[in-house]
Design brief:
Blueprint lengths: L29 E3 L9 E11 L6 E11 L3 E3 L1 H9 L8 H16 L3 E8 L10 E5 L4 H12 L11
Antiparallel strand pairs: 1-4, 2-3, 3-5, 5-6
Length: 162
C-alpha cells in the first residue's frame, strides 16, 4: 500500500485517541479497496456496543455484526470502533441504531452490499435483535439483500447461540 492510499487514515496508530461520548459519524475513515473486482465479505463482530434507551436513559448492550462486500472503499477498523463507541450516550431505540449505522456506512463506503445485525441483551425479559441490509439497486446485490432479509434468521434463539 502506498502513502496516497492511506492519506485519509489519521486514527490508526495514533496514541492520542480521543473518545467522543456523543454520536459522531464524522469519525469514520475509509481507505481504497485493492480488489474491487472481487466479491468478498468483510465482517466485524463488535461485542461491546452500548447505547441508551431514549425514554428511560437506561443502557442497552449488544453485539453488533457488520458484514459488507466492498466496492471502491473500505472502512478502517479503529475509526469504526470509535464510531460505535460514540453511541455510548446516544439515546435511540435498537432499531434506530442499526438503521443509523447502516446509512452512515453506506454514506462513507458505498459498498456493493452491507448488513448490520444487533443482538441486544435482554432487558425486562425480552431481547430485540434488529437486522437491516442494503444492496445496490438494480444489481445482483439488491437481489442478495432481498434474499438475505427473507432468510436472515432461520434458526431460533437458544441459550448457547446468543
Amino acid at each position: 500500500m502506498d502513502k496516497k492510499d492511506l492519506e485519509n487514515i489519521t486514527l490508526l496508530g495514533n496514541q492520542n485517541t480521543e473518545y467522543d461520548f456523543s454520536y459522531n459519524p464524522n469519525v469514520l475513515e475509509v481507505f481504497i479497496n485493492k480488489h474491487p473486482e472481487n466479491d468478498y465479505f468483510v465482517k466485524f463482530n463488535c461485542p461491546e456496543f452500548t447505547s441508551l434507551c431514549p425514554i428511560t436513559s437506561q443502557p442497552d448492550f449488544a453485539t453488533i455484526y457488520i458484514s459488507y462486500i466492498p466496492q471502491e472503499k473500505m472502512v478502517e477498523s479503529k475509526s469504526l470502533k470509535l464510531y460505535l463507541f460514540s453511541f455510548r450516550n446516544h439515546g435511540a431505540f435498537h432499531e434506530d441504531c442499526m438503521n443509523i449505522i447502516l446509512k452512515d456506512l453506506i454514506r462513507v463506503m458505498q459498498p456493493k452490499y452491507i448488513e448490520v445485525w444487533g443482538k441486544f441483551t435482554p432487558r425486562g425479559g425480552i431481547s430485540i435483535d434488529p437486522y437491516v441490509n442494503y444492496g445496490i439497486s438494480g444489481t445482483k446485490y439488491e437481489q442478495m439483500a432481498e434474499y438475505r432479509l427473507k432468510n436472515h434468521d432461520l434458526y431460533p434463539e437458544k441459550i448457547d447461540n446468543r
